[in-house]
């Protein structure tokens, strides 16, 4: 058994580049692929107690529906949660040299953080979910209504008489120590 699983939370380094591939067409529509970079930063203190940062850059490849989400909502600086698989592939550059690259093939892509403000000059088609938090209401308390006990005496029952004895005087000399 083997496992190839990557989980990343980071910030997008550049706007996604979206392409359509005719060779992998399903149902007459070309496959959509989006590529972009994601930065993950590890913060720690060195031996001297000085704060340090180590930033790793990941090449992200999203296909079909994930590519559509990336095209519509992901911009440079967007915080993302990504689950995927490591994939290494080779290619030949313009000089004829064979090169290798490692990418994360996206299985799950979720937007994190808050959406960018339009006041910052960024236009986004992202729609914030419309829901309203209910206003606080004082809990209503109702006094429980008094209910007659279920063990009522039947009217045909004869009254019970109790004999009352004379009070017993306390005699300290009769007390037994326990």
What do you see in this structure?
There is one protein chain. With 178 residues, the protein is mainly beta. It contains one helix and six strands. The chain has a five-stranded mixed β-barrel with strand order 1-3-4-6-5. A hairpin with a 2-residue loop joins strand 2 and strand 3. The longest helix is centred in the middle third of the chain and has 10 residues. The radius of gyration is 38 Å and the shape is elongated. The chain starts with 5 loop residues before the first strand and ends in a 66-residue tail after the last strand.
Which key terms come to mind for this protein?
five-stranded mixed beta barrel; 178 residues; 6 strands; mainly beta; single chain; 6% helix
Mean pLDDT: 77
Sketch the major β-sheet.
Answer: 5 strands, mixed, barrel
Q: How many H/I helical runs?
A: 1
Task: Name the shape in a single word.
Answer: elongated
Count of DSSP strands: 6
Evaluate the radius of gyration. 38 Å
- pLDDT < 50 stretches: 118-138
Distance between the termini: 77 Å
Beta strand %: 35-45%
Structural class: mainly beta
Spatial arrangement of strands, main beta sheet:
1-3-4-6-5
Oligomer: single chain
**Helical proportion, percent range:** under 10%
- What is the chain-wise order of helices and strands? EEEEHEE
Topology, please?
Elements: E1 6-12, E2 17-26, E3 29-45, E4 51-63, H1 64-73, E5 79-92, E6 98-112
Parallel strand pairs: 4-6
Antiparallel strand pairs: 1-3, 1-5, 2-3, 3-4, 5-6
């Amino acid at each position: 058994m083997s496992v190839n699983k990557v989980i990343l939370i980071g910030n997008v380094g550049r706007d996604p580049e979206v392409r359509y591939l005719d060779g992998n067409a399903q149902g007459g529509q070309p496959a959509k692929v989006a590529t972009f970079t994601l930065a993950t930063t590890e913060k720690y203190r060195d031996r001297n107690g000085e704060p340090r940062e180590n930033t790793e850059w990941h090449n992200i490849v999203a296909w079909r529906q994930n590519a559509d989400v990336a095209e519509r909502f992901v911009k440079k600086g967007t915080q993302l949660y990504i689950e995927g698989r490591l994939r290494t592939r080779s290619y030949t550059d313009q000089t004829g040299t064979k090169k290798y690259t490692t990418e994360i093939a996206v299985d799950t892509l979720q937007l994190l953080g808050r959406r960018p403000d339009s006041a910052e000059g960024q236009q986004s088609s992202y729609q914030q979910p419309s829901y309203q938090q209910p206003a606080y209401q004082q809990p209503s308390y109702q006094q429980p209504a008094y209910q007659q006990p279920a063990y009522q005496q039947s009217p045909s029952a004869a009254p019970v008489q109790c004999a009352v004895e004379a009070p017993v005087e306390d005699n300290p000399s009769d007390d037994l120590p326990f």
